[in-house]
Amino acid sequence: MKLCSPEGRAFPTKTLKVADRPRSLEGLRIGLLDNTKPPVDKIMQHLEQRLRERIPGAQPFYISKKIMNQPAGPEVMEMLRQKADVVINGLAD
Fold first, then answer.
1. Which one-letter DSSP state was computed for residue 80?
2. 91: CB partners within 8 A, 6+ apart
3. d(CA 48, CA 61)
């Protein structure tokens, strides 16, 4: 039997910094991350369409995690790092 602590691990606040928000999404590459819970796929597809219609030069792209109850895998995180200026994470149940 393996026992797990519900406490988690604390990180020193000096190592974490909140990213500055862009003033506009115009011309940015926008990653739309789906956590694979219904109906987030439909929400993200609608959001992608609306971003293209309303924000000049916005470049949204859609990507999904493989397993809903686990963090996004390294390949998903790497793609977001390389191809997105900002990320919108969709959560649903």
1. H
2. 35, 37, 40
3. 7
48-83 pLDDT per residue, tens:
999 999 999 999 999 999 888 889 999 999 999 999
Amino acid at 48: E
Nearest to 40 by CA among 67, 64, 70, 66: 64
- Name residue, tokens 């949204």: 60
**Whether 12 contacts 68, CB under 8 Å:** no
At residue 87 the predicted structure's pLDDT band, cuts being 50, 70 and 90, is very high
E-assigned strands of 3-85?
A: 29-34, 59-64
Q: Answer yes or no: are the C-beta atoms of 86 and 32 closer than 8 Å.
A: no
The reported pLDDT for the residue numbered 34 is 92
Phi/psi of residue 50, nearest 5 degrees:
-65, -40
Closest CA to 82 of 34, 29, 36: 29
